[in-house]
Design goal:
homodimer; 511 residues; alpha+beta; Helix Hairpins; BirA Bifunctional Protein, domain 2; 2 domains; eight-stranded mixed β-sheet; four-stranded mixed β-sheet; 13 helices; 18 strands; 33% helix; SerRS_core (chain A); ligase (chain A); EC 6.1.1.11 (chain A)
Chain lengths: 511, 516
């Protein structure tokens, strides 16, 4: 498939199959057709025996996120990285990442060496134990007891070192970005390629207003009160703007559900480990993430996070794939570091409503679903009569999880520029390796109830994709600014009218 | 009007400094009858400093207690509590505190207040002496006499500084202690604990089932509508995902509620869900402490809202509304977040008690003489909504011990939840009279002798009064879902959608099991 993603080392077969019951296919929903191991997988330390041969550590998440140190482990394929060192190095450079590949490889080699050493000592110890089973001279037995004791002591020390090394490796390796689709233009923002362009900027025969002015004149938003009550970049929507938000969401949901997506609402408070596993940074000076005081929880910046988490630490049936969700949530962002004209009005705010698409699929299908997602976005924005262009974002503009990202930028006449209104990313197995979302290919599937470990095909990581269906405030910027009329009113696009009680025009209320 | 609320002392006329900003907007015509009514208020730019009061307010003995910016270290804002009224109605306040099972320390409040008044007088006395000294020094004087006066002035100034510091401390302490005094209570409210609450009304009767029924959790599982298990991994217990038709049902409930309530002249709103913690306090909630219901944001003074009442109450904070702009009636949609600290047991099952939910909340700001009428209007709207959905419910006039500090009177509606086998609260309508407006600083200026407008005539403006605020649940989605799923289940496991909601969920009339 040409998807040069960080591939998986052999997956442990320790997952028991007793819980692999099958649900018949539901009509509406594809949910609940997956298996979630009650307590995710193995203990961190269980690996050294069973996986010594592959010399790749199983990096399963340990269960509760209450642990003190590294709370979870990404199943990063270090062997693949080592064997594709040059490609990874170039990728890191192209993506303007500060990941330290050398350190990762060094730590990995150290770990492998240490692992071998541990194995060696463990073997010696077994040999000693074996020898002690027979009849022995007391002096010889004493010698062996002493030897066994020494070996055990060094084993304890080395295993501790190994744990530390693995933690460090995890820490350093997590900053390695996903690999990149070969068609993605290499370079900074200016290098992004236009994939598609729809419509043309509307020509106005009168002096136009920006959405802030329109919002004020039409009594649709209140930033001033929100600044007192909450802080800057918060807002109240009022009057028809509330109905417009509802209409946008209802219409989007119904359009996207028509394409076979399952609707969801999600928790907006999540454990910070889930945020990390999705590839976001919940801490640090420049974090976009609001944290809850006194807990390990955060507010979500996008529904991608809780939807990504639904199938965490589970093995899906291949027949259940693809899973296509359209999730509605409020999103919260600190917008640390954001300033300037681009931050004006509704364009950049701390809290907003969004409908987000999310797909989990087989690796071989993710590219076609990526194209489906961008097509859905383009269809939606075309129906609303927007002028926009679709960009294949250049390497330096990709977040670490994205293998490829298509942005849509729409014309905002009041702001006098194009502004991003949506983004569709193929994250391949970057997130699923962190979230622990696998599927079991269905080919030689056994009759079911038997606990036949050996007969089951080995699991693979799913690919995940996410795409904005409707980020309400930016859509409002577009709609208000593009559909304003000389008398100060704003026309509601045809498609939305049935969803807002038939209202066709938002008229000035004073006079 | 018989509303024995904590009334306002004379409002400091220092507000007049802001009358220049009291521009009037032309009133909108009734063309857009449902929408509007907002934005017709005036907000003073920056209220006064906390300490600016001692000179001007000395005569009235009550400090004007405007909130300064919420960045200060000590009490960040001051509630305009009418201490004089409390002192003059000591017995009534005492009985009220007892009836409401409050632990407010009235003796402490009154003592602190008396101390403060005395100290205030002392400060005034010294200030007068100091003025006298200054006056004396204006004439020609013996050098020795002048020296004596300089010395006297200096020591007066020193004691003034000390006493003023003491005064500020005393006032802070008074605020601290006095804030726990609950609102007064409507005379018709039954006195006692939960069991004393009086049934105002009862609608419908429990549905009789001819088959073994499920609770909403089982229905949610069987119909693939709710996922608590994944949510507990991703977020923690008592979080949930809604799926499939449940998402559409939430949308339908909110859309239908919004459209019904807008017909009654309410202005729709969406609100910030992160607010400064001072706003939470001003609305009468406790944002901190072990048993707080409020999630706080790390590293800021912000919290998540537990109800849209908070941000809506805050919209007109520190402002003077025009009487003609009242009543302001809002229907606000928000997500609500609650820690539910201390909640446990069967009552917390499934969707009944959760950390995050969607809610449409009504909120009214009105003249004091109108709040009782609007309280009845609010409960009527609630009853009409729930009747349209075919629910069996009763309306309760909540007893004194069951009222939160801000409420003067509270009507709860409890609906029958057959799966849970009990009645459960689905809404609550409270008249908070001026409890919140005294903290939020929301006043209005009676319109009678209103001047021609542009003149900065201080004296001719009528004194401002505090508005009354009321809040009432229009639709708390998860509890409505409990009712709808459990009441409308059928023998084959499907759930019927009530008629009024169908147009709002694409015509879906039935939620069918998806398996088989």
């Amino acid at each position: 498939m040409g998807l040069h993603t960080l591939r998986l080392a052999t997956v442990p077969l320790t997952f028991t199959t007793s819980r692999l019951f099958l649900n018949p296919s539901p009509t509406l929903a594809f949910f609940s057709r997956h298996v979630q191991p009650r307590k995710p997988s193995f203990l961190l330390r269980a690996f050294s025996n069973s996986t010594a041969v592959q010399d790749t550590p199983l990096t399963q998440t340990s269960s509760d996120s209450s642990a003190a140190r590294t709370q979870w482990k990404a199943a990063i394929d270090f062997k693949w990285i080592r064997d594709n060192k040059e490609a990874v190095e170039i990728n890191i450079k192209n993506r303007n990442s500060n990941a330290d590949l050398e350190a990762v490889l060094q730590l990995y080699e150290n770990m492998v060496t240490l692992q071998k050493e541990v194995e060696g000592i463990r073997e010696e110890r077994n040999n000693v134990a074996k020898k002690m089973k027979g009849k022995l001279e007391p002096s010889e037995r004493e010698r062996l007891v002493e030897e066994g004791k020494n070996l055990k002591e060094s084993l304890v020390t080395l295993e501790e070192d190994l744990m530390k090394l693995q933690d460090e490796l995890q820490h350093v390796a997590r900053s390695i970005p996903n690999m990149t689709h070969p068609d993605v233009p290499v370079g900074g923002e200016d290098s992004s390629a236009i994939r598609n362009e729809v419509g043309s900027p509307r020509e106005f025969s009168f002096p136009i207003k920006d959405h802030l002015q329109l919002g004020k004149d039409l009594d649709l938003m209140d930033f001033d009160s929100a600044a007192e009550v909450s802080g800057s970049k918060f807002f109240y929507l009022k009057n028809e703007a509330v109905l417009l938000e509802m209409a946008l969401l209802n219409w989007t949901l119904s359009e996207v559900m028509n394409k076979g997506f399952t609707p969801l609402t999600t928790p907006e408070i999540v454990r910070s480990s889930i945020v990390e596993k999705c590839g976001f940074q919940p801490r640090g000076d420049n974090t976009q993430v609001y944290s809850i005081d006194g807990t390990d929880q955060c507010l979500i910046g996008t529904a991608e996070i809780p939807v990504g988490g639904i199938h965490m630490d589970s093995i899906l049936l291949e027949s259940a794939l693809p899973l296509k969700y359209i999730a509605f949530s409020h999103c919260f962002r600190t917008e640390a570091g954001a300033a300037g004209a681009a931050a004006k009005g509704l364009y950049r705010v701390h809290q907003f409503s969004k409908a987000e698409m999310f797909v989990l699929c087989r690796p071989e299908d993710s590219e076609s679903f990526h194209n489906e997602l961008i097509q859905i976005e383009e269809d939606l924005f075309t129906s609303l009569g927007l002028h926009f262009k679709t960009l294949d974002m250049a390497t330096a503009d990709l977040g670490a999880p994205a293998y490829r990202k298509f942005d849509i930028e729409a014309w905002m006449p009041g702001l006098g520029r194009f502004g991003e209104i949506s983004s569709a990313s193929n994250c391949t197995d970057y997130q699923s390796r962190r979230l622990g979302i696998r599927f079991r290919p269905s080919e030689p599937l056994q009759t079911g109830s038997k606990k036949g470990k050996a007969n089951l095909p080995s699991t693979k990581f799913v690919h995940t994709l996410n795409a904005t269906a409707c980020a309400v405030p930016r859509m409002m910027v577009c709609l208000l600014e593009n559909y304003q009329q000389e008398d100060g009113s704003v026309v509601v696009p045809e498609t939305l009218r049935p969803f807002m009680g038939g209202i066709e025009v938002i008229k000035p209320k004073l006079r």
